[in-house]
């Protein structure tokens, strides 16, 4: 989609022919992403109707206006005809408000809320049950899981394993082959234990059949769930939409959960679901770990699709990963030049909570597309070796790196299974990092005349979204957010970096001398 807007340049009025060329590329991109044909046809028609002959807002050129229209229609497509109609505003602990928040779970303020998960085999229902339990536990809810899948071998054992990880008790009846009785007894047990939420993990099939539907209808009739969530595999493309239609006709789902959105799928099914079935996507699964689940924000998803990034999600990830008190203590140590290897390990653990760096970069406007060809795997392996070296040190050596003599270096190298040269290099890099971080904490960038040097291995930044006034791939403002004067040019921005200056490096120690 970002490629489709490259032809829209300049401040003059766009002709119908130019708009047709851009929309043809938009249509092609959506169809290749497995979006439903009728949905694409209606989507393009609405954009064209608004783009041709429409008034241009102050501060926007015609190209920006088209991108704004596409973004607005994409939000409507993902959230429903009236953007935000089924969505409740979200306010974070910091007071940040999102107009088009996610479609929330229908949780009772008092008593037991029953959530029924259904879907085909392999969609990820059992893993999702544990993820949802962990997600709700963070909100202070007491959650019980019920193993109602008596068809698949080891399904109950799998739920018990992931339930233990999520710290949620799992109810089942050993030897029972009656999923309805398991579900009803689980509900009674959860009410007795004063639990807030009961999650039913039901059986699936390789395809929709009458036996499966009858079983699910019986469970739903017996437990009267407050939420009936259909779990869909994003990797199956349009098949996911067809499955959603069949399940919804029989069970009347309250919403969907798209799993495996972190795979190589283009996710076109997510765009089609709301338009075809008329029910909201409530969560998306973005990995295998328990915390790899996100509420689905229609406006944020539209921004990501159009390459505008998702700063709000980045802020929320940072809020969840970093402790303010620890951050203040770290800042104080940095200013005093007391940063040691123990602090380094603590920072590494916090960074891991944020997820892979390539996923974080996708959330920053313009950066994700500029970095798409950079291979981070080598850097991650190098960083793992660096961490192994640090963990081979004694606590005293981590706190006082200056005491690491030749014999100590030999022992550390042996413990980390690396050559001594790598230990020497790691210590040198750490010393440079400590000096640089102290300089940053005190408000200056030592050894970097002419600004930050380029990242090795990264191609020259691509153009930002055409017509947004962006430079080097970093849009100053999302389209539709008022006029933009482009990125402010700082002094020395065009000066080639000194080849002797430090260069940013994604591997081993973050900063490396030339």
Question: Which short descriptors sum up this protein?
Answer:
514 residues, alpha/beta, Rossmann fold, eight-stranded mixed sheet, two-stranded antiparallel sheet, 12 strands, 46% helix, disordered C terminus
At the third CATH level, what is the topology name of the domain at 103-296?
Rossmann fold
Question: What's the helical proportion of residues?
Answer: 40-55%
Tell me, what's the shape? Answer: flat
Distance, first to last CA:
38 Å
Average pLDDT, to the nearest integer? Answer: 75
Largest sheet: 8 strands, mixed
Q: Identify the CATH class of the domain at 103-296.
A: Alpha Beta
Q: Could you say what the CATH architecture of the domain at 103-296 is? A: 3-Layer(aba) Sandwich
Strand content: 5-15%
Q: What features would you describe in this structure?
A:
With 514 residues, the protein is of the alpha/beta class. The protein has a domain at 103-296: Rossmann fold, CATH 3.40.50.300. Helix content is 46%, strand content 9%. Strand 9 (281-285) and strand 10 form a beta hairpin. Helix 3 packs across helix 9. The longest helix has 22 residues, at 420-441. It is flat.
């Amino acid at each position: 989609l970002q490629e489709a807007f490259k032809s829209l340049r300049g401040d003059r009025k766009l002709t119908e022919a130019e708009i047709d060329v851009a929309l043809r590329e938009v249509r092609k991109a959506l169809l290749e992403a497995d979006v439903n044909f009728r949905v694409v046809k209606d989507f393009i028609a609405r954009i064209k109707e608004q783009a041709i002959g429409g008034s241009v807002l102050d501060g926007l050129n015609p190209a920006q206006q088209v991108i704004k229209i596409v973004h607005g229609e994409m939000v409507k497509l993902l959230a429903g005809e009236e953007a935000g109609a089924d969505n409740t505003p979200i306010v974070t602990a910091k007071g940040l408000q999102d107009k088009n928040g996610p479609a929330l779970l229908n949780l009772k303020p008092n008593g037991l809320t029953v959530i029924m998960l259904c879907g085909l085999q392999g969609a990820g229902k059992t893993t999702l049950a544990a993820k949802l339990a962990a997600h709700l536990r963070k909100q202070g809810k007491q959650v019980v899981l019920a193993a109602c899948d008596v068809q698949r071998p080891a399904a109950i054992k799998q739920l018990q394993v992931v339930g233990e990880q999520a710290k949620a008790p799992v109810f089942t009846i050993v030897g029972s082959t009656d999923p309805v009785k398991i579900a009803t007894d689980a509900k009674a047990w959860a009410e007795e234990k004063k639990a807030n939420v009961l999650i039913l993990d039901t059986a699936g099939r390789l395809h929709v059949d009458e036996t499966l539907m009858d079983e699910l209808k019986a469970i739903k009739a017996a437990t009267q769930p407050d939420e009936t969530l259909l779990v869909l595999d994003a990797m199956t493309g349009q098949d996911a939409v067809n499955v959603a239609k069949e399940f919804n006709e029989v069970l009347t789902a309250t919403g969907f959960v798209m799993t495996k959105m972190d795979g190589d799928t283009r996710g076109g099914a997510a765009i089609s679901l709301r338009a075809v079935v008329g029910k909201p996507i409530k969560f998306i699964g973005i990995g295998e770990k328990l915390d790899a689940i996100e509420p689905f924000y229609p406006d944020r998803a539209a921004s990501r699709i159009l390459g505008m990034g998702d700063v709000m999600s980045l802020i929320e990830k940072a809020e969840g990963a970093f402790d303010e008190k620890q951050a203040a203590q770290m800042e104080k140590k940095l200013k005093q030049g007391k940063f040691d290897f123990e602090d380094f390990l603590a920072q590494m653990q916090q960074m891991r909570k944020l997820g892979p760096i390539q996923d974080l970069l996708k959330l920053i406007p313009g950066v994700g597309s500029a970095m798409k060809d950079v291979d981070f795997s080598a850097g991650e392996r190098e960083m793992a070796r660096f961490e192994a070296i640090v963990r081979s040190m004694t606590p005293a050596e981590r706190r006082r790196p200056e005491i690491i003599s030749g014999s100590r270096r030999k022992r550390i190298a042996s413990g980390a299974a690396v050559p001594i040269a790598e230990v020497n290099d790691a210590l040198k890099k750490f010393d440079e990092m400590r000096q640089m971080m102290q300089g940053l904490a005190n408000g200056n960038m030592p050894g970097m005349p002419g600004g930050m040097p380029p990242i090795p291995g990264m191609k020259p930044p691509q153009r930002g979204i055409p017509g947004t006034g962006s430079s080097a791939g970093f849009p100053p403002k999302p389209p539709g957010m008022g006029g933009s004067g482009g990125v402010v040019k700082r002094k020395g921005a065009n000066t080639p970096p000194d080849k002797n200056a430090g260069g940013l490096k994604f591997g081993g120690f973050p900063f490396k001398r030339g």
